[in-house]
Amino acid sequence: xxxxxxxxxxxxxxxxxxxxxxxxxxxxxxxxxxxxxxxxxxxxxxxxxxxxxxxxxxxxxxxxxxxxxxxxxxxxxxxxxxxxxxxxxxxxxxxxxxxxxxxxxxxxxxxxxxxxxxxxxxxxxxxxxxxxxxxxxxxxxxxxxxxxxxxxxxxxxxxxxxxxxxxxxxxxxxxxxxxxxxxxxxxxxxxxxxxxxxxxxxxxxxxxxxxxxxxxxxxxxxxxxxxxxxxxxxxxxxxxxxxxxxxxxxxxxxxxxxxxxxxxxxxxxxxxxxxxxxxxxxxxxxxxxxxxxxxxxx
Length: 298
Known about the structure:
By secondary structure, this protein is mostly helical. The protein has a single domain, classed as Orthogonal Bundle (ABC transporter involved in vitamin B12 uptake, BtuC). The model has no long low-confidence stretch (mean pLDDT 82). The protein has helices at residues 2-8, 11-36, 40-56, 60-69, 78-101, 112-132, 137-146, 154-173, 175-183, 185-190, 195-236, 240-262, 270-294. The N and C termini lie far apart (45 Å). It is built from 13 helices and no strands. The longest helix has 42 residues, at 195-236. The protein is globular.
């Protein structure tokens, strides 16, 4: 334990904690809406689509095309490409997916869930194909799947902090509108709210956070933050305000515990360890809920 505490004082571990906590707080907060709106698969699909965008940044034809067509853009120059291009393409892919998923008419011809499921499966399959044609495909495949939170750069933290601040401000400013449109769209329309526009804005904030997070945390950890802490909180309370608070608290605790375990002599990969901690909290909450249900009523 003393060795782990010493490692926690190292700069790279502290940077990993900063990055993971930003993702944890914002994603676990928005995850409550994802779970309650029953659009968990949307979160998974957005994560996979963003991962596909990031993977395309390393696809040789795309690399050549971007560096040939946009040499004046600093992000696509060779010295900046590997760091900046994946985020830009992940963001672009996310915007396309958000534009599709937020359409009011989606699902008229085919079930909405089928379209989202097809997007998820297609993005996952294409990501593997794209990475298989990349000379360093296996390395980037692992980063896309598990992230590399312990190798986070200061520039990654800056991007996460700015994006997280923008999303947090929007969520705070329009909390009432997002809640009303999410859970009672008919009343929202009666009161004069443009439900489609508010829904699109909410999806955009979710997509932005996912797109900038997967480059650091990976699709699995980002999706876990969106689902596991909110589920844990909902097992313990049904009051929205308390659920939002508990979801954030559980994600923060799991992040600290996961990082601490991963840098201990146990030496486990950080992102899966954080996910394991979140699963443990979910199981514990379920046991607490089950035990309270068995207690005789007074």
